[in-house]
Design goal:
The chain is an alpha/beta fold and about 450 residues long. The protein contains nine helices and 18 strands. A six-stranded mixed sheet has the order 5-6-7-3-8-9, with helices on both faces. Strands 10, 12, 14, 15, 17 and 18 form a six-stranded mixed sheet that branches. The longest helix has 16 residues.
Length: about 450
């Protein structure tokens, strides 16, 4: 897959000007006869940052304030030039970098939509064709003919985002400005971002809302003091970042079975976390407690998590995810989503997730299991801890087989053999034919 964005060893330095490098008055400058100013020092906002974002990929950038996130976004857009390194971007870029950026405060929202659209590469005709959609999405219709300087910060964001997503960009860059919007508009923006991701738009956004990174991003970059601290799977990157931010007090080093940084093929388990609580054993069992690696569609099963507590916790969540072999998420949930408020996790125990009927179509599946804090910091995250095979006489497709029946009205008729439950029609016909020959 071709890269939409590519950065190679990008660094950005800013000069620091102290009192010694400035003239107090014009007279002192003339008397010195040397008006060349020299900076006292410089600071590197970014240092040797390299990564590539594939076309259609959603890429998140996280880190503490001052870590260089916004500087990096501005370099990608071309607002800033790197001190060293190279940047390549393919396709039309739309960016929402700073609150009010690209808007003229003295003119109306209507006029700003036109100017902003032209700046982003649209023709006047294209702007007219999309104008109503932009206004409808922004929700600022009653204030459209008012000067932008009278807008609130939330209205700025609404108008800026509406324009950015309606210019059909190949690459959309978003800074933390979405946090300014209200809950309704934020949800609307997330839905639009998901739609654009589905259409193959490359998305890069800076945010402190880490759940958005986990749920929307294919990969994430953690910047720390201008350097790449970690890049890769968003769950792991966010977890590593949260562990550093939380800076837990010294914890006894994990025992051999505690999470280790994996270097394993994709079909093996990956495991990571702080080790304060661990999932010692995870098993898929039948109603007799026997562990399963293969089962029939519709079987009654449970997933059991044996929990060891090394450091008692008041903040904890147990979560599970079931995935098809191709990576499709079949189902995921956790105790927090289902209303179980944590009270105290003091000693070892067992968690059972009981499913009276696991209605999956035939295929191979994996289970992810985790115990983490409510804000997502992992104690123990085990990806691919279980793998199992579902067999079925029914040759349907997909991942989930809902309870169902067929009903027909009017002039529609099937042979009785075709209605044999759970058996494909050709096989049912062969069975009926064999019976007649006996």
């Amino acid at each position: 897959m071709s890269a939409a964005i590519s950065l190679q060893n990008v660094s950005k330095s800013y000069r620091l000007w102290g009192r010694g490098s400035q003239f107090a008055t014009l007279k002192s400058a003339l008397l010195k006869r040397d008006v060349k100013l020299a900076p006292e020092a410089s600071i590197e906002a970014l240092r040797d940052v390299s990564f590539a974002v594939d076309a259609g990929e959603a890429f998140g950038i996280i880190g503490r304030n001052g870590s260089g996130k916004s500087t990096l976004l501005k370099i990608i857009t071309g607002i800033l030039k790197p001190t060293r390194g190279t940047v390549a971007v393919t396709g039309r870029i739309a960016a929402l970098i700073e609150l009010g950026a690209g808007f003229h405060p003295e003119i109306t929202g209507r006029e700003n939509i036109v100017i902003n659209g032209i700046m982003l590469g649209l023709t006047r005709r294209e702007i007219e064709q999309r104008f109503d959609s932009i206004v409808e999405f922004s929700g600022i219709g009653p204030f459209l003919d008012q000067p932008v300087k009278t807008y609130s910060s939330g209205m700025y964001v609404r108008l800026g985002f509406a324009v950015a997503v309606h210019v059909d960009p190949d690459v959309l860059l978003i800074d933390e400005v979405l946090a300014v919007g209200d809950e309704e508009f934020s949800a609307k923006c997330i839905a639009k971002i998901q739609e654009m991701k589905y259409r193959g738009v490359t998305l890069v956004f800076v945010t402190h809302q880490l759940d958005q990174v986990r749920n929307l991003c294919d990969r994430a970059l953690w910047l720390d003091h201008g350097e790449t601290a970690q890049i890769g799977d968003p769950v792991r990157v966010v977890d590593a970042y949260l562990q550093q931010v939380a800076a837990p007090q010294a914890v006894a080093p994990p025992a051999p079975e505690a999470p280790q940084e994996p270097k394993a093929p994709a079909d093996e388990e990956e495991r990571f976390g702080s080790g304060e609580v661990i999932l010692r054993h995870v098993a898929l069992v039948d109603n007799k407690g026997l562990e399963l690696v293969a089962l029939g569609a519709g079987s009654a099963v449970a997933i059991e998590l044996d929990v060891d507590v090394r450091v008692p916790q008041d903040d904890f969540v147990f979560g599970l995810g079931i995935y098809h072999a191709d990576g499709t998420c079949v189902y995921g949930t956790n105790t927090d989503l289902e209303g179980f408020a944590p009270e105290r996790l003091e000693s070892s125990g067992r968690v059972r997730f009981v499913m009276p009927s696991l209605d999956l179509v035939a295929g191979q599946y994996r289970v992810d299991a985790a115990v983490h804090t409510r804000n997502g910091r992992a104690f123990d995250y085990r990806r691919g801890v279980l793998r199992f095979v579902v067999g079925s006489r029914v040759h349907d497709t997909g991942v989930y087989r809902p309870k169902h029946s067929w009903q027909f009205e009017g002039g529609i008729a099937f042979k009785s053999a075709d209605a044999r439950h759970g058996v494909p029609a050709p096989i049912a016909e062969a069975i009926e034919s064999a019976k007649k020959k006996r």
